[in-house]
From TrEMBL:
Residues 421-469 form a coiled coil. Residues 473-492 are annotated as: Disordered. Residues 23-254 form the SET domain. Keywords: Coiled coil. PROSITE patterns: SET. Pfam families: SET (PF00856). InterPro entries: SET_dom, SET_dom_sf, SET_SmydA-8. SUPFAM superfamilies: SET domain. CDD domains: SET_SMYD. This is Protein msta. Residues 482-492 have a biased composition (Pro residues). The gene is LOC108619554.
Length: 492
């Protein structure tokens, strides 16, 4: 373990521009692993714990990405002529081309000599975030070396591949070693566009290293969450729940809605550790049954969960009839359900998907299963875009139902605040308000209708009375108006 005190000193230097005088956190010895970030006082849910700025940041530039974004300000540029005219092989906008940051990047890459400086190459653009480590100050570089790095066999591949894109790529061992180390730290602690960390429904389009955040340990039910400030790309970390003084502040490296086994595999393979948090030790995942499947015995309506977690291929147990199944057997059920639901998710009609989730899928997969949750999240995302083939009532009832379903699962898991929860609660609130307004309008219409009906009834009554009055008046008048006997007749 790297000494928490040295890490703190380096972090203090990094955070100097915005560190509080009386910070709510300190780096200390963790019960989870090595070192971690601890609360120095009681924190209320929603309170800002710290702000972190990226020590390294660059375009993610994955192979499938469009590459016409400025490598300094990240703004999208017209897709013709966006490459630096100095021949460094980096895309840059005319404003940033004059900035100090680009001057440094430009000098470095020009000296390395890109093979095709006028063609945007994702390998070169992606490497920039890593290569920027070379020009950091010694303290900043020490901070990178202070962070956890998974130095597995693959961590040298990126730099090795990038070297092939330049004529004079550095051969100095020290420089290559800085880059390889940075790649390993980024892979362990960094953010990457298609992030393996939970995006929690947040878009993050860069490759970046936030050093204080990188010191935080993982928990599958994190007690903090983060957002990004658009202008600065700074990260704001807040308390997801109330946190007591001395408690460790945790984040999550995985998606919130994946089952124990998938999370276990991911953390083991990508992050190199086994999580032993309460959720991971509980086969029902706190009663949320996110990995739950139906019993294979068709006469039994029980749910089946992995016997113990922390194994790649556990046996599964039915909670009702106690029948055991092998991992392979249960994975068949899961794969079948995933295939069926994902096929509907990828189809065009949202109405069909909603109908399937509401009426059909429950017959072969419990609605608590993560595949169903993911499908509901994608329905909500599509509804938010508002270009769907559904009528207003279906949109409204689906939004209400799915937002409630998902927040209920979050409650069961004991998940506090998060960007996703805020979004769901906002949608729910809006929908409930809309419904209440509609009901009020309907009640008002009914009241008006009743009033009209009453008036009509009164009018009828009045008419009837008038008619009677008319009739009797007519009866009396008959006599009075009877023509007097014609005198002529009398005379006759
Ligand atoms: Zn720019
Ligand atoms: Zn340049
Ligand atoms: Zn866990
Ligand atoms: Zn059973």
């Amino acid at each position: 373990m790297i000494c928490p005190k040295r890490t703190s000193e380096l972090l203090d230097l990094h955070l100097a521009p915005f560190k509080d005088k009386d910070p709510a956190w300190e780096v200390g010895v963790s019960k989870i692993a090595g070192r971690g970030v601890m609360a120095t006082r009681n924190l209320k849910r929603g309170e800002i714990i710290f702000q972190d700025s990226p020590l390294l940041i660059g375009l993610a530039a994955h192979e499938e990405d469009t590459l016409n974004a400025c490598s300094v300000c990240f703004k999208m540029l017209p897709d013709t002529r966006f490459m630096c005219r100095q021949g460094c092989g980096l895309p840059v906008c005319s404003l940033c081309a004059k900035k100090k940051q680009h001057k440094t990047d430009c000098d470095m890459f020009k000296a390395w000599g890109s093979n095709e400086p006028d063609v945007a190459n994702s390998v070169i653009i992606r490497l920039l975030c890593v290569a920027r480590a070379i020009n950091l100050s010694k303290d900043q570089r020490d901070l990178i070396y202070c962070l956890q790095a998974n130095l597995d066999n693959n961590h040298r591949t990126e730099v090795r591949n990038a070297a092939k894109c330049f004529k004079n790529f550095p051969t100095d061992k020290k420089i290559v070693e800085i880059m390889n180390r940075t790649v390993a730290v980024l892979r362990t602690n960094g953010f990457d566009k298609t992030t393996d960390r939970t995006t929690d429904n947040q878009e993050f389009n860069y490759r970046a290293l936030y050093p204080l955040f990188a010191v935080m340990n993982h928990d599958c039910i994190p007690n903090s969450y983060y957002t990004f400030e658009e202008k600065t790309n700074n990260m704001i970390v807040r308390a997801a729940v109330d946190i007591a003084e001395g408690e460790e502040i945790t984040t999550t490296y995985t998606k919130l809605f994946t089952g124990n086994i998938a999370r276990h595999l991911f953390l083991k393979m990508k992050k190199g550790f086994t999580c032993k948090c309460p959720r991971c030790l509980d086969p029902t995942e706190k009663g949320s049954f996110i990995s739950g499947l139906y019993c294979r015995d068709t006469n039994c309506s029980g749910l089946v969960v992995p016997e113990i977690t922390g194994l790649p291929h556990p046996n599964w147990n039915c909670l009702v009839c106690k029948q055991k199944s092998t991992h392979a057997q249960m994975m068949k059920s899961q794969d079948f359900a995933s295939g069926a639901i994902n096929a509907k998710v990828n189809s065009n009609s949202l109405r069909t998907l909603v109908h399937y989730l509401n009426e059909k899928s429950d017959s072969f997969i419990p609605s608590s299963n993560y595949v169903v949750i993911d499908a509901k999240l994608s329905v909500l995302a599509r509804l938010a875009q508002g270009r769907e083939d559904c009528n207003e009532e279906l949109v409204s009832s689906t939004r209400l139902r799915y937002c409630r379903d998902i927040t209920q699962i979050m409650d069961k898991l004991g998940l506090g605040d998060s960007v996703l929860r805020t979004q769901l609660e906002q949608q729910l609130h809006k929908e409930e308000e809309r419904r209440a307004k509609k009901q009020k309008e309907l009640a008002e219409k009914q009241r008006q209708l009743a009033e009209l009906e009453q008036k009509a009834a009164e009018a009828d009554k009045l008419l009837a009375t008038l008619a009677v009055a008319d009739e009797s008046a007519a009866g009396a008048g008959d006599g009075a108006a009877a023509p007097p006997p014609a005198p002529a007749a009398e005379q006759a």
